[in-house]
Amino acid sequence: MHNVELSVSEAAKQLKVSPDTIRRWDKKGLIPSRRSKINYRLFNLKDLQSYHDKITGELSRKSFKVLKSSKMSNYNCIELFAGCGGTSLGFHNAGINHELLNDFDFDSVATIRNNKKSWNITFAPVEMISFKDYEVDILQGGFPCQAFSYAGKKRGFDDTRGTLFFQFARCINEQKTKPKIIVAENVRGLLNHDNGKTLSTMLSVLKNLGYKVHVKVLKAQFHDVPQKRERLFIFGIRKDLDMDLLLPRESSIMTLGEALSGCPDSEGMRYTDKKAKIMDMVPEGGNWRNLPIKTQKEYMKKSFYLGGGKTGMARRLSWDEPSLTLTCNPAQNQTERCHPTETRPLNLREYARIQTFPDSWKFYGTTTSIYKQIGNAVPVNLAYHIGRCLIAMLDGFYDKKTMEIFDETSS
Questions:
Q1: What is the reported pLDDT for 409?
Q2: Which residues, in sequence order, are bridge partners of residue 109?
Q3: Which of 53, 238, 275, 359 has an alpha carbon 20 to 30 Å from 192's alpha carbon atom?
């Protein structure tokens, strides 16, 4: 019964709440939904009931958990632009072996090396690495999105020369046998960068290299991550393989309260006395609009008179929702990430929990560097779910309860 899909009005009737409540939950990214063929929202009753029971206290809360498979697969991977290890650890926890990892940020490489001493991670500019001796099942990379000098001029591989995407494509092209599956990750904004020309150029290059390509934006909060974080993924399947793209099914959220329960204390940024007095006035889940009008104008300055909601400013998080997307600095005026009940920015271990790093994962560098490393990472549990899907694709069978074949028409 709980797996049945309902419209807004049907869902409201089942839960005995108003249709506007269902719409508000959906708009805030608190419940997964999908559009029907006639373009209205459908909701899974099980997910609705789960969130409703959490916030009403009728359901015991989840414990924070970093997901991990009980055994390793036989599949291997190269990861470029590895950062501090979000995707790497998630893939490893799913059962994927790493042949090579690379990054050129000193602190990020130190973080991975000190946590996983057996991993082969190189600290070098990616253009200095030869991939001719490698032959892996999977290539993954969260390359930075640089503007393409020749994007859209149909020069194929050369359209991307001088960018880090070119190095990603070179890694594919140089290997003894091209990887069976490629996964490229970036910000959602890549969809519209340069009016879509940048993404179009990338897809064209990957197709010319021999891949069937698919693009999907995944919402981390529906994949065991206590954070509203959208990431764009480009998946490529080698054209000679008869293989469908599998994606993790969406499920009910983990709240910030669940994620931070029992979180170890750590250092972190602090507000100035002046800012702390302002943030003291913001209630849990509130923002600058909850301040007295005079304080709003003083705090917002010129932004007060501009359009848009600006809801990240003077923002205090809520225990009953996932965190907003973590940034590289939790105390910036435009992207406040204030603790729900204490007047301070989220600290480093709280940041790590929200990105689903284990408490044992130690970060290296200055406080500023560590915030940046964590803020730029792919959430570990999201990477785990993707990794499990990649293994299932290579195995040739999958768990229909937790995975689904990608439907291009619904994307």
A1: 66
A2: none
A3: 238
Is residue 356 a contact partner of residue 102, using CB atoms and an 8 Å limit?
Answer: no
Q: Which residue has the tokens 């915030």?
A: 371
Mean pLDDT value of segment 169-175: 95
- Per the model's pLDDT, the better-predicted residue between 164 and 123 turns out to be 123
E strand or H helix at 41: strand 41-44
Residue 151: predicted pLDDT: 42
| 240 class by beta-carbon count within 10 Å (0-12 exposed, 13-18 middle, 19+ buried) | exposed
Task: Note if 145 is an active site residue.
Answer: yes
Residue 52, both tokens: 């409703």
Looking at the predicted structure, is the pLDDT value of residue 136 above 80? yes
Mean pLDDT in the chain? 91
Q: What angle do the packed helices 8-15 and 19-27 form, to 10 degrees?
A: 110
Residue 59, sorted as left (phi over 0), alpha (psi -120 to 50) or beta, turns out to be beta
| Domain residue ranges in the chain | 5-55, 76-253+383-410, 264-376
Tell me the CB-side half-sphere exposure of residue 85, using CA atoms within 13 A.
Answer: 27
- Residue 78's Cα: distance from chain center in Å? 19
Angle among Cα 251, 69, 348 to the nearest 5 degrees reads: 70
| CATH topology (fold) of 5-55 | Multidrug-efflux Transporter Regulator; Chain: A; Domain 2 (1.10.1660)
> What sections of 105-163 are H helices per DSSP?
106-115
Predicted confidence at residue 145, as pLDDT, reads: 62
Q: Domain 76-253+383-410, what fold?
A: Rossmann fold (3.40.50)
With CA atoms as reference, report the closest residue to 136 among 103, 91, 85.
91
Q: Report the C-alpha gap between 44 and 30 in whole angstroms.
A: 12
Q: What is the pLDDT of residues 318-345, one digit of tens each?
A: 999 999 999 999 988 778 899 999 999 9
Catalytic choice (145, 171, 338, 389): 145
Partners of 100 in the beta sheet?
78
Rg (CA), the chain: 22
DSSP E strands in 124-272: the ranges are 138-141, 181-187, 211-219, 230-238, 246-248
Residues 6+ apart with CB under 8 A from 20: none
Mean pLDDT lowest among 20-24, 35-39, 75-79, 404-408: 35-39
Residue type at 244 in one-letter notation: D
Q: So what's the pLDDT on residue 152?
A: 45
d(C-alpha 219, C-alpha 380), whole Å = 13
The string of pLDDT tens digits covering residues 237-251 is 999 999 999 999 999
Q: Strand (E) positions, 278-331?
A: none
